[in-house]
Amino acid sequence: MKAAVNRIVLYSLTALLLTASALTAQERNWERRSAPVDVPVTVFHSPQSANLPTAETLQSGEWLFEISHRFFPAVSEGADALWGFDGPVYNRLGLAYAPTDRLLIGIVRTNLHDNLDLNAKVRIAEGGQGATPWMMGVSGGVAFNTEAPLGADDNEVQAYGQAIFNVLLGDRFAVGVVPSALYNPTIRLATREVDFALGLNAQLYLSEQASFLAEWVVSPTHPDLDPAEFEHDSGSFGIELETGGHFFKVLLTNQIRMNPAQYLAGSLDAFEAGQWRVGFNVTRLLHF
To answer: Has residue 68 got a pLDDT over 90?
Structure first.
C-alpha cells in the first residue's frame, strides 16, 4: 500500500511539474508574440518626389528601377499635339541599389545632353515615431554631359550636393525642404561657379495608394546667357499611385529637365498654364 501511495504522489508531483513547465512556456511564448514591434519611421513613401529626393531609402539588398518622361509640347497646344502627349520626349532611365538600409547608390541617364549621373543618398537620422515623424538625409552626385551642347566641349562635368529634411504633419501631410548646391550650372560658359537652390516639396496622402504631390525649386538666374536658359524657377504638381512595389507619378510641370545637375539650374519656361508640360515617373522595386 505504501509503495502504491508513493507512486501516486510521485506521479502527481511529476504531473504538476510538467503542467507548470507547460504553462510557463505558454506564458513566455505569449509574451514573445505580444512584444511590441518597432515600426520604421516613414514620412514620404517614395524615395523621390517629382524631381527632388526624399530622405526615404530602401531595405538592404533591394533595387529600384526608374523610367521617366517629360513631353516637349505644351498642354496648351491642344488637339494638334494631343494635349501634350504627341512628343517627342526627354527620357530618363535609372537604377539604384541599397547596400544597407540607410545607403542608396544609383546611376541615371537622360537623353538631354546624354547626361549621365552617378549618385548616392544616405539617410542619416529619423525620429518622432508616434508624434511628428521626421527624417534627415544627404545626397550628391557627379554628372557627365557626354553629348554637350555647342561651346561646352571642355566643360561637361558637373557636381551637386543636397541636404534633405522631411517631416510628417498629422497623419497624411508630408513636407520636405531640400537646400542644394550645384557646381558648374551653366556648362556653355567657361566659368565654373557654384550656385545654390532651394527645393520645397509636399505630399497629401489620401489613402495608402493615392496622393497629391507638389514641388518648387527656387534657382538663381543667369542673365549673361544668351538666350537666358535658366531664367525661371521649376514647379511641378500631380498625383502619385502606389501599388505592388510600383510608384506611378503623373505630373504637370514647366521643367522638362530631370537630372539634378539640370533641374537645379532652373527652367527655360515660366510656371504658367500655357507652358505646362505632361510628365510621368514610374519606379519599380526589385527583389533578387
So the answer is: yes
- The answer to whether the CB of 129 falls within 8 A of the CB of 41 is yes
Reduced DSSP (H G I as helix, E B as strand, rest coil) percent helix, strand, coil of the chain, to 5: 15, 45, 35
Q: What is the pLDDT of residues 26-35, one digit of tens each?
A: 333 333 344 4
Please state the pTM of the whole predicted model: 0.82
> Residue 130 has what pLDDT?
76
Confirm if 138 and 122 have CB atoms less than 8 A apart.
Answer: yes
Rounded Cα–Cα distance for residues 15 and 7 (Å) = 12
Distance CA 241, CA 209 (A): 5
Taking a C-beta distance cutoff of 8 angstroms, is the pair 123, 142 a contact?
Answer: no
C-alpha cell at 21: 513547465
Q: How far is CA 228 from CA 123, 189, 210, 223, 231, in A?
A: 36, 12, 38, 6, 6
The contacts of residue 95 (CB under 8 Å, 6+ apart) are 63, 64, 65, 66, 106, 107, 108
Q: Amino acid identity of 247?
A: F
The span from the CA of 277 to the CA of 84, in Å, is 6
At 234, which helix (H) or strand (E)?
A: strand 234-243
> How far apart are alpha carbons 228 and 254 in whole angstroms?
15
Tens digits of residue pLDDT in 144-170: 988 866 656 666 899 999 999 999 999
Among residues 259, 221, 234, 280, the alpha carbon closest in space to that of 140 is found at 259
68, 275, 50, 122: CA torsion to nearest 10: 100
